[in-house]
Amino acid sequence: MEKEEKNYRSNLFNVDIDGLEDILAEVHEELIQDTSNLNDKFSELPAEFSSSEDIENATAIVKEIDILAKKWRETRLKDLKPFKSAEKRGSDWFKDYENPVKDKKISVNKRLNEYLKKERERQELESEVELEEEEVESEEEFVEMVQSAANEEELDELISSSNQEVISEVPTKYEVRGFNRKKLPMEQLEPYFTDHQLKAAINKHMNERGPTLNGVDYEEVVNL
Fold first, then answer.
1. Using CA atoms, how far apart are residues 71 and 63, in angstroms rounded to an integer?
2. What is the pTM for the complete model shown?
3. Helix (H) or strand (E) run with residue 67 in it
């Protein structure tokens, strides 16, 4: 019973995925033929261009490629639009339930962060002022524990555990709230940049200032 339910859920709307390509091939037979004709023209180009005629033929084929590629793109977007619209509609439906669940966690975390902030402020304040009268007894007990600490390491551990007693009730982590790029130690961050991120930055620099960076190999290529 569990297996049947799983299969039902995996293809809820019973879309014939396996037959999709055959349907598309039948409907777009003309585009496929145009692509085949272009392939024949492309195969007739020489492996290396050596004359003005070769250049003329090559630029003509590039124009045909652009036109055909545009047709394929427009057709793809048109044919798949119902699928994407259905996917978006379905996704929005799920998010109507999913997002409120996530929002509850955000709300709880916000209150926890406010709690932690207040506790830290309270602990900092207590470290600067004398304890109130009703806390004197516990203070004296703490002093006795400090005085009886066997060594400096045990004393540091005792004080640290006392300061973190309330805060350690919930797990914490650090988050980046903002940064000043002028003060960032870029040499420390450099190992964490991916090649994709670096290439994107290099391309942006090149578009604005030209091929002028050291350590970059530039190549002049055709821009048709």
1. 13
2. 0.57
3. helix 52-128
CB 61 within 8 A of CB 41: yes
Residue-wise DSSP of 142-209: HHHHHHT-SSHHHHHHHHHHHHTTTGGGS----------TTT--HHHHGGG--HHHHHHHHHHHHHHH
Tokens of 221: 């290529």
Residue entry with tokens 């396996």: 18
- Measure Cα distances from 3 to 6, 7, 9, 146 in Å: 5, 6, 10, 64
The contacts found for 111-118 with CB under 8 angstroms, 24 or more apart, are 112/170, 115/170, 116/167, 116/170, 116/172
CB 146 within 8 A of CB 158: yes
Rounded to 5 degrees, what are φ and ψ at 151? Answer: -155, 180
138-195 pLDDT, tens per residue? Answer: 555 655 655 565 555 555 555 555 545 555 567 788 888 899 999 999 899 999 999 9
Query: Residue 155 contacts by C-beta under 8 Å, 6 or more apart in sequence?
Result: 146, 149
CA 66 – CA 69 distance, rounded (Å): 5
Residues 138, 165: Cα–Cα separation, whole Å = 15
- pLDDT tens for 45-83 read 999 999 999 999 999 999 999 999 999 999 999 999 999
Determine contact, residues 65/224, Cβ cutoff 8 Å. Answer: no
Give residue 11's identity as a one-letter amino acid code: N
